[in-house]
Amino acid sequence: MFKKIHSTQERWVVQHFELREELRLSIVEKVIPTYASFLEWFERRIEGISPRGLTRPRATDPKQSEALIHVSLSEEWLRDLVLQMVAHGTYSACRGNNYSPGVAIRRPIFEPRGSYPREREIGASVLPSMALIGALFSLLTFCLIPRPALAGVTRNYEFNIKLQNVTRLCHTKSMVTVNGQFPGPRIVAREGDRLQIKVTNHVSNNISIHWHGIRQLRNGWADGPAYVTQCPIQTGQSYVYNYTIVGQRGTLFWHAHISWLRSTLYGPLIILPKINVPYPFIKPHKEVPIIFGEWFNADTEAIINQALQTGGGPNVSDAYTINGLPGPLYNCSAKDTFKLKVKPGKTYLLQFINAALNDELFFSIANHSVTVVEADAIYVKPFETDTILITPGQTTNVLLKTKPEFPDATFLMMARPYATGQGTFDNSTVAAILEYESSISHSTVSIKKLPLLKPTLPPLNDTSFATKFSKKLRSLASAQFPANVPQTVDKKFLFTVGLGTSPCEKNNTCQGPNGTRFSASINNISFVQPTAALLQSHFFGQSNQVYSSDFPISPLDWFNYTGTPPNNTFVTNGTKLVVLPYNTSVELVMQDTSILGAESHPLHLHGFNFFIIGLGFGNYDANKDPKKFNLVDPIERNTVGVPSGGWVAIRFLADNPGVWFMHCHLEVHTSWGLKMAWLVLDGKLPNQKLLPPPSDLPKC
Hints:
By secondary structure, the protein is α+β, with helices and mostly antiparallel strands. The chain is globular, with a radius of gyration of 26 Å.
């Protein structure tokens, strides 16, 4: 068997880094009964696996080539593979056997070197010695046999926050990254798994990381927003985000949650279903994360600090990016283009994530439609569309069915902003390329000669399309995936959301409207960031002079919210929370205001999913509008766009004790104060109480 594998070394070419993850997951999901069947299985799955960072040896003489491969590989790759799988929780069952490898946690084996997610062309490899394979097999069987079939595993990651020089638009800058990667590494886990992510800060900035969309049941200590659930991680310090994924599966993402550092600190968080649990749609040929971002030539910390100092609006980005790349429509960026290579007649699951700082985006693929199947890690009733709309903080999974035959064309995948406000924005378009692989050999030159087709995107301010798209999103509401909408409500809230102003300091000149400062608020309260973490202050009963619990349940002063703005546009300031008893059913209506112009606001709620039961335009009417609420199959999300000049109604059950941030996911609005927090009290039972803080919780 070994000789057969050794003689077919040229077959072992890495095609996709996802296959390496499939190998890693498959190892822990299979009980390999015999050594022979292990070798047979390993040979079958080894295609696509290769030593990390090795390039294909080049030699004309076969013996020389074999020697080069042997030297390149030695026996270190498989040993490294074993140690990494141990370090990353693959052998979690070994913990019961007191097995501790004592190795440093490294980059996940499915994550290639270089900028995510470019796929590398790396060379052929051979298996190391039979003795090492035998050792691997023994370790596998030793660890796997006692493990329950459906038990979750513990997966360990290490995030080193470090500066890295990155070049885009012919501009090189030193920026804050995770492990030197931009975008950051992809996290993959299964529903029920436990994640332990050690974050070590090697830069001068304070750092915190948010696991966007993870509910963090009774465990707000792992949620991440700075000065809300934790003090930030200071220079030279570490913190382990330790949490279990309960009842969630789908596409989410992680990002920094302090100042504007999430402009470069972000990456996908993919939650696979439990073992042997299929998707409620056709199994895709391949899954591809597509993450939108913004590129700034300047330092984003300097941009927002200057804006907060002057009271004016911050400078906008220089480009949008797809998987960190601006694409061919920007200057000096043809080489920095994401290419999605597909085969005819296949179905692909595209996992869209909007990690942009300040812009909602339209996206479309030329001459292709897609089927939406998931939003914010919640399965939806499938519907077909040519264009999707995705706000910052949202994720959307779609199925792309490729054309049955090679189309003799390549296709642009393009995104540009949906803009409703009166402020400046980055009015540019990012593009990637959808390229078909042909069974007939096409040279690079011939592919370049194929016509490049462009999609048609909605107008920049097409609120009509945005509304229609949002209303198409419905929960599956099936027996397996029910929509547990609260049918009765314990507490109702009306929150106005929008921009306002603050007075300029004496002897100072401000660049906001009429010499004031830009501000933003919820119920006219602009949130003041505390200097101590809210959750810690609550847990230890030290809330005095940190926060108050008198956030208003409705606007203190009524006015025509979407009509002529009031003369007084000043906001009030404070660190105020809403306190909810455990298991309170909540109905919240969020109303846009036109104080400084109507604008769409994507509101994100930490710690919960919520059901979007209604939306409309103009001022919310508490007598008429509830009659149109959808309490049967509304979409369940963690981020919702409050319509420009309109309102949205949501419901959720406050069954997660802790302090939970709610804020606009347009980072500029968050910086101006469009944020608040909910304090959910403990329940009576032990499993309804907030867990105590971990010992390594950062200190302010």
